[in-house]
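Below is how a single chain appears once it has passed through the pipeline. First comes the sequence as given, then the structure the pipeline wrote out for it. We keep one example in the README because the format questions we get most often are answered faster by looking than by reading.
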Amino acid sequence: MNQFTAELIGTMFVILLGNGVVANVVLSGTKGESGGWIVITTGWALGVFTGVVIAGPYSGAHLNPAVTIGLAIGGKFNWADAPMFILAQFLGAMLGALLVWLTYKDHFKVTHDPGCKAAVFCTAPAIRNTTTNLIGEVVGTFVLIFVIFYFTEPAMGDKTPFGLGSLGALPVAFLVWGIGLSLGGTTGYAINPARDLGPRIMHALLPIPKKGDGNWGYAWIPVVGPIIGAAIAALLFLYLKN
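Resulting structure:
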């Protein structure tokens, strides 16, 4: 598997399982309906674990443009490869969202709240406030990228954290789980531009009945916020390292 394919398939699995658990909790008539935040954050963490296991040996499992950009700023990734990685991540996210829709198609039909339908694809703030919503995404992504820098230090192993093979994906999964539990309550913790924008585009394109407008006025925050957070994390890492 080449790096492009690894990033595409890995990101697809992240979104399939991550957005899939949201669908299971918020759509009407599912077995997991009203399962709550613990179920959602756990499902996302396991989705990340799955994606990292698949992509890690081939691409390092960025699965997130913020990770790619942050590692490039920090000198741990070649800028020339960044566009290819980011394209693969967006395509993978869109494909994962498509598979979630196909899996839960009947439940979209019986769900009446357009907000719940949109939540399967993309994030939205609990309280709409542009400044604090942006800060929430910046802080959550800062934590993600700053810790990932230490996972990728040579002493910690090569492409998979701690040199533990597939089990090396566990620290990343726990990290995402912790961010969701502790910091995700304000915006839904996109912390990944591809995770939010790719599925949001699919929400607009797919024939979902009475789906609403997808809250496009908010859509820039889960893109810009993670990039800012990644840049701050990378610059701080470089400063502390030197």
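Confidence is low (pLDDT under 50) at residues 160-164.

See the next section for the split statistics.
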